[in-house]
Specification:
The two termini are 20 Å apart. The protein has helices at 3-14, 18-30, 33-40, 74-87, 92-103. It contains five helices and no strands. By secondary structure, the chain is mainly alpha-helical. α2 crosses α5 and α3 packs across α5. The chain is globular.
Length: 112
């Protein structure tokens, strides 16, 4: 199941806004950032001499075509900017997508 469906299911089950879910998952991601970033690395599933090895090519897992809006306060956006910087990901959208993908239920994040 994709991130968007998992986000909607979690949001509705907990009666939360998208912004509240983003902040919860971002908070949860801090304790598992290294593992989350390793999980997010994508590359070709087939290893050949013609294609880049795993971890070299492709966008991070979770950064698909569907997007949701979140409405952070300025101070929340500053915290997110720090998380983006710590992670080395390209922007806020990429960090949120990776954190949601890794930390929403039905994925590896075990920190509850």
């Amino acid at each position: 199941m994709g991130v968007a469906k998992r986000l909607e299911r979690f949001r509705k089950d907990k009666n939360l806004t998208v912004t509240e879910v983003v902040m919860l998952m971002a908070d949860k991601s801090v304790g598992v950032m290294e593992e989350m970033l390793q999980y997010a690395v994508q590359g070709p599933k087939v290893q050949t001499s013609l294609f880049a090895p795993k971890g070299v090519a492709g966008p991070p897992k979770g950064t698909g075509s569907e997007q949701r809006q979140w409405a952070p306060r300025p101070e929340d956006r500053q915290v997110m900017a720090q998380l983006v910087e710590m992670s080395g990901l390209v922007n806020e959208s990429a960090y949120i997508a990776v954190a949601l993908n890794y930390c929403l239920p039905e994925k590896p994040c075990k920190k509850d």
